[in-house]
Amino acid sequence: GDWSSDVCSSDLLGLFHKPEQYAANIQDILKQNEGITPEALIQYQEAMMNRPDRSHVIQVLAVPVFFQIGRYDQAVPFESSLRQCHLPAVSEIQILRGCAHMGMIEAPDESLQGVSNYLSHLC
User: Nearest Cα to 93, choosing from 108, 60, 71, 61?
Assistant: First the structure.
């Protein structure tokens, strides 16, 4: 079928800056999750919406906190991510300028390099 018209895929499409470029990835994700029941999806969404604010945790960490931010992220808006970067004592920030929420798919090399750089500073 047409993945772009599926109700579940519409939420998934919003996680990509240019979803048409990632049709094969989106199709793979949908296929991997096709056994999930509607009830489980509803519970997942409710759990995400009702989770407690844990931002205080990153305010007291003794290690730098890494933020990898997609410039076009709709799930965690760019401005919200930037505000969170000020919470830890030390932040390392990488902005993926051509990405939304799925930087690991949209810019895999750049994403991996950012995580690798962060981890190398910790060790």
Answer: 71
